[in-house]
Amino acid sequence: MKAVVGMIAPFSLAGEWYKGNLHTHSTESDGQASPQQLVDIYAENAYDFLAITDHMRLTDTTGLEARGMVLIPGSELHGGQGELGQHYHVVALGVREPISFAADATAQQVMEAATARSELCFVAHPSWSSLTYRDLLSLPDHLGIEVYNTTCHHGIGRGESAVQWDDLLARGQRLLGLAVDDAHLHYPDAIGGWVMVKAPERSEAALLTALRQGHFYSSTGPTIEMLESEEDRLYVKCSPVQEIRVICPKPGHGSTSYRLGRPGPFTEAEFAVREAWEVVRVEVVDARGRVAWSNPIWFV
């Protein structure tokens, strides 16, 4: 068996790792901080890029002092209605002009508008929105879903959407997972979740291309330093952690460092790849319970 290299390639590709937040709100919609204040907050925390994604509008960032960061234009769109009554929320990045659609647009039409008018888009906070796998299966092509959202975690305790992600993977959807803040700053909800993108340079074009190619992982703290798959072996190297999980969405499959007899802290582990796995993703968990998520690794 061999891994589909797109999801593990960033760990061996040339380039640098860049840290960024892809979902943030300012006073241009319902956030507490101005666009410049948001830039200052993330720059002071050593971020390399930031997307200000105000609701249903495109916030102009061209006049801001970027403070060394790449500012990616974006917007959060909402419309349609899920099985349990909530709107779909879609984050669009690389937006050049405001994205509009009919007030009664379906979720599919919202996603189609976002796809047509942006460089990439993904589904925001499916757990907070109570979107089911049936809701999510109905959408046209997009990058993936937010596996972690800081404001949803800190606000109502429903920031993680790994269950929805696994439901989609189990049904053959090749979707990626992103950690974001969705910061509004009405309460502490910044600098909690981010993506680490491997790109040849720190520019908007390079970062968006790397995101589309799956050359990133997501985190609330730990780092993933290497993922490597050869034949029937999966090797993981990371910052010191207490646990590594190899998550397989098929019933009863997967593995963990506990099964290897590896008490933490440790920084690497090797797992045997089983024929039945088909797709797995890796989670590493540190002593504080913070998590890093790899993108899925498909085996062919």
Structural summary, described in words:
With 300 residues, the protein is α+β, with helices and mostly antiparallel strands. It has two domains: 13-219, TIM Barrel; 224-298, Immunoglobulin-like. Helices cover 17% and strands 31% of the residues. It is built from six helices and 17 strands. It has helices spanning 35-44, 107-116, 133-137, 150-156, 162-170, 204-212; strands at residues 16-21, 49-52, 70-79, 88-93, 120-123, 144-149, 176-180, 194-199, 216-219, 224-230, 233-241, 243-247, 254-256, 266-272, 279-285, 291-293, 297-298. The strands form three sheets. Strands 1, 2, 3, 4, 5, 8, 9, 12, 13, 15, 16 and 17 form a twelve-stranded mixed β-sheet that branches. A three-stranded antiparallel β-sheet has the order 10-11-14, with no helix packed on it. It has a two-stranded parallel ribbon with strand order 6-7. Strand 15 and strand 16 form a beta hairpin. The longest helix is centred in the first third of the chain and has 10 residues, at 35-44. It is globular, with a radius of gyration of 18 Å. The model has no long low-confidence stretch (mean pLDDT 96).
Major β-sheet profile: 12 strands, mixed
Summarize the amount of helix as a percent range: 10-25%
Please tally the helical runs, counting DSSP H or I stretches of 4 or more residues: 6
Number of strands: 17
- Oligomeric organization of the protein chains: single chain
The average pLDDT value, as a whole number, equals: 96
- By CATH reckoning, the class of the largest domain would read Alpha Beta
What is the CATH topology classification name of the largest domain? TIM Barrel
How many domains? The number is 2
The name of the CATH superfamily of the largest domain reads: Metal-dependent hydrolases
CATH architecture classification of the largest domain = Alpha-Beta Barrel
Q: Outline the low-pLDDT stretches.
A: none
